[in-house]
Specification:
The chain is of the alpha/beta class and 265 residues long. The chain contains 10 helices and 10 strands. The strands form 2 sheets. A 6-stranded parallel β-sheet has the order 7-6-5-9-8-10, with helices on both faces. The site of S-adenosylmethionine has 17 residues, from strand 8 and helix 10.
Length: 265
């Protein structure tokens, strides 16, 4: 695969155009930083403020400074905005190769599993899906599976995920093909989560923003679980529900005893 590394601006733009249809857009410094940290292959990175981006790396992410220095091709702001219409304020964008579906399916299906898989059953809101991928990455979840029509690699989802699609396995699947493991489906009518320990091999399933869990998912569920909520409140936001559930799972293992990674040093 071609790369913009070391290319002059015109060549770098040509390489970008050749890759843009097949690669994932990483928009802004933080998305690129996360993708590099979690092993994404990044063949193209353009910036109209190379010095500013490297200064940010010095300040916030010295671990990726060298990689960025080798990658970043300078282009003028007008050219960059023509390629990336809603350019991030950090004036940098990159293209990453999407991880293979086969590799992700293998990671999602592997047992034993050290951390749950999150299932979003027919989610509708791209921002919610991105926020959930970010949560899954932070808690070290095995992956995020979506059912239904939403593409979890849609550019808006990738933007919401802050480049963390590369830190977990993200794929779309049918309910009938979900990864193995006991399914704990979250629903306001379920059993109170506070009385339950969620196992590491759990498949944690959440319903759509509009209509909740589908009939197919309810059928596949081993447990229906609720989050504490005062009467007269009908439901929580989807991503918020995932956050609470992952926190409950994490609280089941004391720090250092397996479970999710500890806080950043
Ligand atoms: C916005 S809610 C969906 C509300 C939808 N109108 C319904 O009928 O369920 C999206 C998802 O978040 C989860 N959720 C929201 N509030 C919850 C609660 N109190 N207990 C368990 N899950 C909840 C469920 O998985 C739900 O399907």
């Amino acid at each position: 695969m071609n790369s913009t590394s070391g290319a002059d601006p015109a060549d770098a733009v040509r390489v970008w155009r050749g890759l843009a249809d097949t690669c994932v857009l990483l928009d802004g410094f933080h998305a690129i930083k996360h993708a590099l940290r979690f092993g994404a292959r990044v063949p193209a990175a353009l910036t109209s403020d190379r010095a500013g981006v490297l200064a940010l790396a010095d300040e916030l992410a010295p671990d990726v400074r060298q990689a960025l220095e080798a990658l970043l091709a300078p282009v003028d702001d007008e050219r960059l905005r023509a390629l990336v219409p809603r350019l991030h304020p950090t004036a940098v964008a990159a293209l990453a190769e999407r991880p293979s579906r086969d590799g992700n399916l293998e990671a999602l299906g592997r047992l034993p599993r050290a951390a749950p898989v999150i299932v979003l059953d027919d989610p509708r809101n791209l921002g919610n899906a991105g926020a959930v991928i970010r949560l899954a990455a932070g808690f070290g979840a095995t992956g995020v599976v979506t059912t239904g029509t939403l593409d979890p690699w849609h550019p808006t989802v990738v933007r919401g995920g802050a480049g963390l699609h590369f830190a977990t396995a993200v794929e779309r699947m049918e309910v009938a093909a979900l990864p193995p493991g006991p399914v704990f489906a979250l629903d306001a009518e379920g059993e109170d989560i506070r009385g339950l320990k969620l196992p590491d091999d759990a498949v944690l399933a959440f319903g759509s923003e509009r209509s909740g869990l589908s009939a197919a998912l309810r059928e596949r569920a081993d447990h229906l679980v609720s989050l504490p909520m005062r009467p007269q409140v009908s439901s929580y936001n989807l991503a918020t529900s995932v956050g609470m559930t992952l926190f409950h799972w994490s609280a089941g293992s004391p720090p250092g005893a397996g479970g999710p990674p500890g806080p950043q040093a």
